[in-house]
Design goal:
about 525 residues
Amino acid sequence: MARGAGALKMWIAGGAGAGARKELAREAGIPVLRTLADAGPNDCVIAGGTPAGGLAAGSGASSAGVGYPVRSVGALVGKATGYPIRSDDVGKTPERSGQSAALSVSPWLMNAAASEVAALGDQELERRLRREGVSARIGEQGGGMKLTVVVWGFDALEMRRASVGEGVINDVKYVRGAVGQTAILDEHALWKPAQRLAVRAVYALGLDFGQVDLRVSEQGRLAVTAVDARLLLHTSEGKRRWRETAAAFAERWAAETTEGSGVQTMLGADPEFVLLSSAGRVVPASRYFPYEGEAGCDSMRVRGEKIWPLVELRPRPCPEPAQLTAELHGLLREAAGRTAGVALSWRAGALPVPGVPLGGHVHVSGAALHGERLRALDNAVALPLRLLEPPGAGSRRPRYGALGDVRRQPHGGFEYRTPPSWLVSPRLALGVFALVKVASEHSRELAACGRPLDEERVREAFYSGDRETLLSAAARVHRALAGTSGYAAYREPIDFVFEAIKRGKSWNENADIRVKWRIPVR
């Protein structure tokens, strides 16, 4: 892969607000490009300007906006990558498209989907968001509190609401802004849920930053009412967060793209399985397992009641997929000791029992969480696993298993939460860890041509279960993975996954997982 430290840069198209955008770049120490063609192969470029579709610029002299000028994409045809992929070669094999087996890297053009988002009608925008599990009522002007959340990556930079008078509202402190709105502080009880919903909306639409309008109903439920694919900051606090967030991102980006350094990850996991009695009933895991520990139990809510039906394994983090798989095998043996002599069946997968969806969350540390990396994981991990699920397993979506389901962790890494429980076999577990390893460490290379889920038709197929479309997409992902510099070390477990897909295999959620893990069933 072509290397060389990349940098966070900005390109400004000019027009109204260009001065304010330059000021944002200056405050954050972001170099401004003269032309998009000046971007280096590992640069991350924020393109600033007015997108097509007539989205209004921020009002008031104190606001500043950054957005993507859709008419300038052609300046980097064949060089820039982003969402969606725009090329005559989409869907072709490397040989047919004239590409070499090895992938070359290209600048990450942030918010390359802005033109597509701006062109969506309210009904289609709402449909896409709801498909991804994002509560949305686009264009609704009903009652309730109205919020505006400005998102960069996976963080809210500022949160505002329309002014409703002076004083304290709902026991929350407000700061009067310069544009007739109030800024909500991060101590507000709404900050975290509003941030979470806004971040999900931005990511689901293929954006990297933007402004999301939310409505809070009288019952406290949040729903997206509008999405603007620009960074519009009105408050000094928002601009301070922008400076800090941009600086931190730029530092990590440069470190990860520096020649000879690369990304070295540690992997962890917390997969779940469920215990069934001989009568086929769920047996509470809390009967045999502690709440804490490496082999413990996990909870879920059923009709508002918290119960503990799931066994959750929490192996020690490891740098290598094979090591982590071995750790899991040891914990399964420990779990067998806790249930020895009891007639139970151990089930894993996506939905082995109606109403009991299982997760196979994977933890990643040593790699920064950003949109390019998360999209690599969705394509390299979630997409192939979707094809190995048995019929009916997709019914857990979008509440569970939606694309881009991620959570930061206290250890500084993140937890990728989209996969179901891959504990159905040790070979599948090893394959998943190998895919996570390569996708996390080589997301730059995969962005070149290995992200079919950036295309609306493939994303729709993921949720609808259109197998023909997904098979073609999985073949593209496999070729892209094979072109990365990290593939050779994990070729066997990765190829196992894609060979199973080619043969039309799916895992059996009615089988006792102990058999394939060679754990005595007694």
